[in-house]
Amino acid sequence: MTKKEVTQLSYDIVGCAIEVHKELGPGLLESIYEKCLRRELEIKGYKVKQQVNVPVEYKGISLDVDLRLDLLVNDTIIVELKAIEHVLPVHEAQLLTYMKLLEKPQGLLINFFTDNITKSMKPFVNDIFKELDD
Fold this sequence. Notes:
The protein has helices spanning 3-24, 30-43, 89-102, 117-120, 127-130; strands at 48-53, 56-58, 61-63, 68-73, 77-82, 106-111, 122-125. It is an alpha+beta fold and 134 residues long. It has one domain: Alpha-Beta Complex (Lambda Exonuclease, Chain A), CATH 3.90.320. Strands 1-4-5-6-7 form a five-stranded mixed beta sheet, with helices on both faces. A two-stranded antiparallel ribbon has the order 2-3. Helix 3 (89-102) links the parallel strand 5 (77-82) and strand 6. Helix 1 (3-24) packs across helix 2.
């Protein structure tokens, strides 16, 4: 993938999140937004995996841990959803770690407890993204 393709996919994911937010509004559980966003993305033709196990390796040994990300879209962008009053730095760190462990170029942290998804959404890229062709 190119930077342009990843950026377009990110834009499309946010558009789907906006559609879900318009339909449901704030105030529901994260799991409900997750299912609805997955459905919206699939309607648009994207491949979506939900509650994906994130493998953790420590000093050459694979650990048996229960670490899961919310959504993985087109095997490229990790989407972490929240439905909370304030997104904390630990939520951002969690997403960045998922991106590193799975070697994915971009992540989106989307909080549905808001009036405006665009203002509260936080995109993240890493060195993998920077190494992609324009």
